[in-house]
Every structure is written in structure tokens, then in C-alpha cells.
Design a protein that fits this description.
Layout (H helix, E strand, L loop, with lengths): L1 H16 L6 H20 L5 E2 L4 E6 L2 E6 L16 H6 E2 L7 H10 L21 H9 L5 E4 L5 E5 L22 E6 L4 E5 L6 E11 L7 E7 L7 E7 L5 E9 L7 E6 L2 E12 L1
Parallel strand pairs: 1-4, 5-8
Antiparallel strand pairs: 2-3, 3-14, 5-6, 7-8, 9-12, 9-14, 10-11, 10-13, 11-12, 13-14
Amino acid sequence: TGDFSRGVLDDFVSEYARGRTPNPCVRCNETVKFGALLERGRRAGFDAVATGHYAVSRFERGSWRLFRSADRAKDQSYVLSTLGPDELAFARFPVGERTKATTRALARSIGLRTADKPDSYDICFVPDGDAGGFVERARGGTTRGDIVDAEGSVVGEHRGLHHYTVGQRRGLGLATHEKRFVLELDASSNRVVVGPGELLARGGFEAERVSWIAGPPAPRTETTVQIRAHGEPVGATIERLEAGAARVRFARPQRGVAPGQLAAFYDGDEVLGGGTIANSLR
């Protein structure tokens, strides 16, 4: 559909071209599942739209709020963290209060053919797992450039920024026995910066397109933040900035802070909101 093409595919390609690592599932939730689909349900006169996300929503303290699933291993509250109270008011998550194993057992008991369907971790429109190849085909080519070390010395050639992400170690094509990781993707100079793993550590990041589910917290808030879909939440201080932005400082340095990825903010099991990582801070 046009919504999927504009909101997900075009964003995916353009973000990679900017040297960022997008999360298409988040954009799909925003524009398709909880955008176009919910709007169609409203126009059709539905009371609500149910999805299979492993998350919990409840009306508490005067507004709709989002919480982690009962199944922590399958919890999907992270990718729903940019939703607002209007979307949550019209959405239902019937499996969020149960584990995936319990859901499968129920599906099996009533003869659903999807009861034992394997979990999918691939991007739905990149079935071969080659995100870089998808972007290259969509853009009609690639622009090669230098791979440099932390001091700026050229150590190799990259195949296009869209083939790399912060924290990547494999597939760099460097003739060295030392472990090198992608530290930064510099779109302005078309360079991939690499170095030892200890240089991946970052003290925080700035986020853009930040939204708060039940209203913004205090201007400066101690909370936890999750920067990967299945990552562990870590202690952090969030400072709200103007124009839907925020500055986040970790309680201890973290590795693999990739611009373009989603950051979700939590207070215990409750999701406070989320935003896109714009840049990392040392």
C-alpha cells in the first residue's frame, strides 16, 4: 500500500543512505498498524482493533498506559513505545498477559494451523536478510568510500554505508588480525570509522521525534532506557529538550549506540515513551 511504501520502505532506504540504522517495525507500527489500520477500524465503526503484540495496556490514573508483557522473552513493548494514548485507547493486546508458550498451547487446542509456526526475526520485506542489498537495489547502485581508523588513517574500502551499522565486526573486509568494530558511519564524508571494541562505549545520546505516552515527565528524570529490541534496560537520566528532543545520559557507558535506532524509556514495567537516536554522546 501507499502507507507502507511511504512510511516504511522510503524511510528505511533514506535512513540507511544517511548512515543510520532504522527500525522498520517501529515505522510500520506508527504508519500502518496503528495509523492506517486503526483509522480504518474507526471509520468502520469498530470498538477496538486487536493485535498480537506481547504488551499490556491499561487505563490508569486518568489515561491509557503501556506496560511490558508477562512474557519477558517475547516482550514487544519496546517497538510500541512511540504510540500515544489515542492509539492505545483503540488498541487491544489480548496475548500480552500470557506467555508465548501458553498462547501456542491455546492455538493448538483449537486446531489453529499457526500454533507451531516458527518465530520470525527477519524484516518482512527483506526475506534474505540482506538489508544492504535491498537498499542498493532501491537506490539503483552504491557509492564506495574509505574505511578509516579512529585517527583518520585509511585502512580499507567500504561497499556503501548502507552495508554497515554501528557495532558491526563481521564483513568489514579488513586485512588485520585485530578485532575491529564499526564505531561510526560518517555520511558527510562517506566514511566508515572502525576501531577496537572499547571505543564503542558511549556515555549517552540525543534523541529526536520523542513522544510520551501519558504526558511528558519532569524536565530531568531518572529512569531506565532500552536501545535494542531485546536489550537490557539500563539506568539513565533523561533531559527533555525543545522540539520533541531529549538528551540521555547512561548511568554507565553502553556499547552499540546506533543513530536511527529506537530508544524506549521505562519506569519499572511501564513504558514512558520513546524516540529515535539522533547521535551518540561520549
